[in-house]
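Researcher: Structure for this, please.
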Amino acid sequence: MPMALSKLKSLFRRIRGSHIDINELDNILAELQRTLIDADVNVDLVRELASKIRKRILETKVPEGLPLNTIVMRALYEKLVSLLGEKRYDLNIKPGKRNIIVLVGLQGSGKTTTCAKLAKWLKKRGLKVAVICADTYRPAAYEQLKQLTESINVPYYGEPKEKDPIKIIREGLKKFNKFDVVIIDTAGRHKEESGLMKEMREIVKKTKPSEILLVIDGMIGQRAYDQAKAFKDTVGEIGGIIITKLDGSAKGGGALSAAAAAKAPVKFIGVGERVEDIEPYDPPDFVARILGMPDKRFLEQILETLPERFMHLRELTLKDLRDYYESMLRKGSSLFGRIREMFAGNISERELKKQLGKTLAVLKAMNEDELYNVELLKDAERIDRIARGSGVDRVYVRRFIKQYHKLKKMVNVLMKQRGLRKDEALRQIMEGKIDTETIEKIARKMGIKI
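Model: Predicted structure, token format:
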């Protein structure tokens, strides 16, 4: 692994440091393939990745003043995140009903520990969580899960002497009927163990889970592709992948292979032994690790050359709001009916459209720096300029900014409590799928003042 890390850093310095002709491009892609294979990425996947990067680069018209090396970096980053996930993906959790999550994976992949980690992560977001131990093969599984769940004060269920996992799950689900999320820890199994794979298929069939999460050891290496594909073929759709044991020397190269085989995005990564050590997948962070850059500074230098849209800002910006309003006006009346109450109660569609147009004019009068940094709008001269440019008075602009700050907090609450993406949280609020009173109640439980 250290050699692979060194090679990748050397490779990226070459990409950054010189103009690249076609021969040099082929040399760099050949080295990239060797480096990724050394990092335990599936060989066929590496070849496919290099081919797509080359095709993308050769088809790209390089803008004047933008060196070809920038296009190489952009193409590589795009292809990596297209396999792993281009953004943070939500768990499939629906409010107002019980959601069942089944964890599957190889023995020794860290499912039981991950089960507790995920339970704590969900609990911190205000959800009522319980855990069921359905691993009837590993003798220590029940005791391990018992200790972990007791340490985080999460209810658990299991029957150490029962050998039928489906019976255990059935009884556990009866016990936890009124919980928001129930996580089921299943026995580890290998693709060659046909009996265990058949049992897993039956578990999924009987429980009808909201989501199946595949737990993959970050050090699994070349076996990742075949194992992930076997799980997908057995249970059907895999909702997401959790990569474990990324706190040591593992770089997660197998994650590329697993994500490609399962056709599922990475949703979480385990970064330590403590029950708190689980993080939602974030593209720049994880790609930095795959490329042997755990401090991320080297990748950040590369990403500085990329367009803003690749940076995935975490908080709601005025640019996000402008994009949403423009999209809303394009979609027309079908959307206006759902959001009418969010703006002014029972008003006509014509009046609502007029108000939206007025707000959009304010947003369009802002420059790019202001759209991404609302703190700049504390400057009275900027407020005056925006008011003149949009045809409204300063009071309207200040009132709108105040409303934006409240909306931003509401979006943050939903992102943290329900694990939603920024755009989905905004959409649910704007379209009235969750009311302000409910969000404020959640925020109070989380100690956030809106």
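Researcher: Any notable elements?
Model: The domain at 99-281 is CATH 3.40.50.300 (Rossmann fold). The longest helix spans residues 394-418.
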